[in-house]
Amino acid sequence: MIGLVESMLYAERAGLDQKAMLEAIKNGAAGSFSLNSYGLRIVDGDMQPGFYVKHFVKDMEIAIKETKSMGI
Question: 22: which of 6, 39, 41, 58 fits an S-S bond (Cβ 3.0–4.6 Å)?
Fold first, then answer.
């Protein structure tokens, strides 16, 4: 996510079209879930969360519980 927003800031400051930049890099090594899911939304000013931290914490608690039950 940090790489995504830094690349968008670079594109903006360099005078590049952010949407065109995102399209150009989305399928290469620089592509990512964040880029494909949030890049255009950010350009369009949509800052609604895509995933809440509370859900991440819940998922990590499940993972920790399971690994403890497996002895790892």
Answer: 39
